[in-house]
């Protein structure tokens, strides 16, 4: 989740909390006035607790909305400790790390405000366990009410947040007491520890020559509940190439657009040209066509507006064969190999899936070509990429990969709790990592047998040592 998505939610929750607070304040002050005027009450209204209570209420309202609002249809489950950290490491998406950071920050106000309520609460051994217990209650309610998975990481992160909030309060207090410098520095240690931990993770990631693979296991399968039988497998040697996509410059993207517009008997409208964050787009002067390219890998879409606004069910089948469509693409500068796998889907869409080795790498991917009933090309989605060899690296052998399967060190979904695994064959494919490199991966074709039924699945094991 991006910051621009989170801020509107926080403002919405805060606004709703302030609205509820306004109603409660009116009721409270009305009751207080009756207490003072009618019953001649002697107790005084302390402004400190009125302000603290108002701020605490809005904070707790935001927390309640953040953890319970907009949550329906969740299945019950328990996520092991540090599972979200492993997930963030292998997927390496900013949204995952942001979610961890937000879970820590969510309880910083709790650790800051709680000690202000009473001298008895100004103890580290009271504030931090209180934060732990509150988040434990929240996670338990989410699990019981099926509003979310019980996550030990949320408890861990929220407890850290409560500790940081408590230390922040102590540092503020020490700032007004000049002789408390050592104590203030001591309260800053948890902040340094958190920064060092996250900094160490990001530095370790930056120091890696390659990125992380999403298919890497981060939650171990239960090896006690499975049996593994292995057939005769091919040995692939001890080295494999690592590849990188070939990027396209802005000038090359514009040249590709002009070539397609020329083939469609139109020209580019320079006033519509757009280039930002690797995305290039431009429209034709007659407004009939649009071209969009991802310059990081050269994939693009070229479409006729009118055709794709049409309901797909109304598009008639085209008169061309797949081979005729391949030849028609040559007029658009796209030369697919004759033996390229091809198929026709939905009557007007031709799918080509080339994968060829070149001297410097691999050309592979899928191209979708749309042709109308007159035999004219009206759309091209070209997801074919060129992978250039970066280096040749040592890989584990097939038997080592099989041992990882036996140990449950693989990522798989929807497997039963107890099953027998029969490994039938193995091949190597190349999967994109979090830094844009394509690493070799063993792909094992297996039969999963459980409760008398067998289904085929694939298990992937990263091959790099």
Write the layout of secondary structure elements.
Elements: H1 3-37, H2 47-68, E1 78-79, H3 83-91, H4 94-105, H5 108-113, H6 124-144, E2 150-151, H7 152-175, H8 181-187, H9 189-207, E3 226-230, E4 239-245, H10 250-263, E5 268-276, E6 279-284, E7 289-294, E8 299-304, H11 305-309, H12 322-330, E9 342-345, E10 349-352, E11 355-357, E12 361-364, E13 367-371, E14 377-382, E15 385-394, H13 398-406, E16 419-432, E17 437-450, E18 453-462
Helix pairs in contact: 1-2, 3-4, 4-7, 6-7, 7-8
**Average pLDDT taken over every residue:** 88
Task: Write down the Rg.
Answer: 30 Å
End-to-end Cα distance? 33 Å
Indicate the overall shape.
Answer: extended
- Stretches where pLDDT falls below 50 for ≥5 residues? none
What share of the residues lie within helices?
40-55%
Main structural class: alpha+beta
In DSSP terms (H or I, runs of 4 or more residues), the helix count works out at: 13
Task: Please tally the β strands and state the result.
Answer: 18
Query: How would a textbook summarize the main sheet?
Result: 8 strands, mixed
Q: In what range is the share of β-strand residues?
A: 25-35%
